[in-house]
């Protein structure tokens, strides 16, 4: 298990909220800064704040699709702490109410949907690394993790389809790898990885859960605990790679 100060991007619901809950419950020394687009509209975070106190859970606004928002929140975070020990980016976009849906064939591809998918799934986590990495480059062990997906593995693609999501996650994995190489020069104790949570019972996977065997569908709390265990076991040699919830490396 990790400790000290953690930044959770997308901490208002689903797996992000479960991360916040697990970290605060694990150790009274753990402190969490959680971001959502609108912290006032995050009842789950406010309930946790009432339970654990404002000193241990601080809320900030951040829109991962807007670099100005990421930059501003980075400045606000520096007023709250001079270092982070863990940052997890939980951004993920597979479908929405504006026509984005996993493509089954080439005819389904839409350029605007591709751009939206890349903005959230690939560019967003990279912007988090760009603006926050110095808070984690303090020379002691620290981890930058972003939620990715096994479908972003090119070598593992056997079914086709899902063009936007697959390609955006593949790009995210490449960004993680490239950033890890650069960040190693700044702090050899800084670990930068992607994490595949498996199929989690959240809004992202809800339309596709009928095809998932019961034993393979994890609750958000289960997935958060598994991934935090994986994070706790990472070493600098693991930086730049993608791991699943059981700690197994996923080939690109």
Automatic annotation (TrEMBL):
Classification via SUPFAM superfamilies: NAD(P)-binding Rossmann-fold domains
Entry-linked Gene3D superfamilies: NAD(P)-binding Rossmann-like Domain
Matches recorded under InterPro entries: Fungal_SecMetab_SDRs, NAD(P)-bd_dom_sf, SDR_fam
Domain of life: Bacteria
Pfam families: adh_short (PF00106)
PANTHER family for this protein: NAD(P)-BINDING ROSSMANN-FOLD SUPERFAMILY PROTEIN (PTHR43544:SF12), SHORT-CHAIN DEHYDROGENASE/REDUCTASE (PTHR43544)
UniProt-recorded name of the protein: SDR family NAD(P)-dependent oxidoreductase
């Amino acid at each position: 298990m990790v400790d000290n100060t953690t930044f959770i991007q997308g901490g208002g619901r689903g797996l992000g909220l479960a991360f916040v809950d697990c970290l605060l419950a694990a150790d009274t020394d753990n402190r969490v800064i959680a971001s959502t687009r609108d912290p006032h509209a995050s009842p789950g975070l406010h309930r946790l704040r009432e339970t654990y106190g404002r000193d241990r859970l601080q809320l900030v606004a951040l829109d991962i699709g807007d670099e100005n928002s990421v930059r501003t929140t980075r400045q606000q975070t520096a007023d709250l702490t001079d270092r982070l020990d863990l940052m997890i980016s939980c951004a993920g976009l597979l479908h929405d109410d504006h026509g984005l849906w996993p493509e089954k064939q080439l005819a389904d591809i839409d350029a605007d949907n591709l751009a939206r998918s890349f903005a959230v799934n690939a560019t967003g986590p990279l912007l988090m690394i760009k603006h926050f990495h110095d808070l984690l480059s303090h020379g002691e062990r620290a981890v930058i993790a972003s939620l990715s997906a096994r479908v972003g593995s090119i070598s593992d693609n056997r079914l086709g389809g899902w063009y936007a999501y697959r390609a955006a996650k593949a790009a995210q994995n490449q960004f993680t790898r490239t950033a890890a190489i650069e960040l190693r020069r700044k702090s050899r104790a800084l670990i930068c990885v992607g994490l595949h949570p498996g199929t989690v019972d959240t809004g992202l996977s809800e339309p596709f859960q009928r095809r998932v065997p019961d034993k393979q569908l994890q609750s958000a709390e289960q997935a958060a605990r598994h991934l935090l265990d994986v994070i706790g076991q990472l070493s600098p040699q693991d930086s730049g790679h993608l791991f699943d919830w059981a700690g197994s490396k996923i080939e690109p």
